[in-house]
Automatic annotation (TrEMBL):
4-aspartylphosphate carried by residues: 65
Species in which this protein is naturally found: Pseudophaeobacter arcticus
One Pfam short name: Response_reg
Protein name: Response regulator
Domain of life: Bacteria
Keywords recorded for this protein, A-Z: Phosphoprotein
InterPro entries: CheY-like_superfamily (IPR011006), Sig_transdc_resp-reg_receiver (IPR001789), TCS_response_regulator (IPR052893)
Keyword Transcription regulation attributed: no
SMART domains named among the record's database cross-references: REC (SM00448)
Domain Response regulatory: 8-132
PROSITE patterns listed in its UniProt record: RESPONSE_REGULATORY
Transmembrane segments: none
Length: 148
């Protein structure tokens, strides 16, 4: 029987504090999933393409900020969904934007969730805990139980 794979978490955020908060929350919750970081949408697309082209790669889940330089989150989503080999990627938006237009535009690209960071670390911790539960429910048999 094939061993389940861990899901790689790709954090797409240009803010080092935001990235560190996600990593700290993961450690606090005992999550050992592999983590990659993209500082903007272009870096994230490059990393996803490399992961996709790697034999035996881990599936990937994206935590996406919207406000970034070079290629913002909505531009990233548009490009991601236009690429057949990457279009299936699960994306959760984790941003400070409460703008209804950002929510609506994100949902147009079939994001799995939209979370507003209100009080920095507590919001991130709650989001990572929600991801932990999501992975258990939505990806049974894909993730090793010890990974989450």
């Amino acid at each position: 029987m094939k061993q389940p794979q861990e899901i790689t978490l790709l954090i797409v955020d240009d803010d080092d504090i935001g990235v560190a908060s996600v990593q700290r929350a993961m450690r606090k919750l005992g999550m050992s999933n592999p983590v990659r970081v993209g500082r903007n949408g272009l870096e994230a697309l490059e990393q996803l393409q490399v992961l996709n082209d790697t034999p035996g790669r881990n599936p990937c889940l994206v935590l996406l900020d919207l406000n970034m330089p070079r290629m913002n989150g909505l531009e990233f989503l548009a490009e991601l969904r236009s690429r057949p080999e990457l279009a299936h990627t699960i994306v959760f938006v984790l941003t400070t934007s409460e703008d209804p237009a950002d929510v609506a535009n994100s949902n147009r690209y079939n994001v799995a969730g939209y979370v507003v960071k209100k009080n920095a670390y507590q919001s991130v911790l709650a989001t990572v805990e929600m991801l932990q539960h999501y992975l258990r429910i939505a990806c049974p048999g894909v993730i090793a139980p010890s990974a989450i």
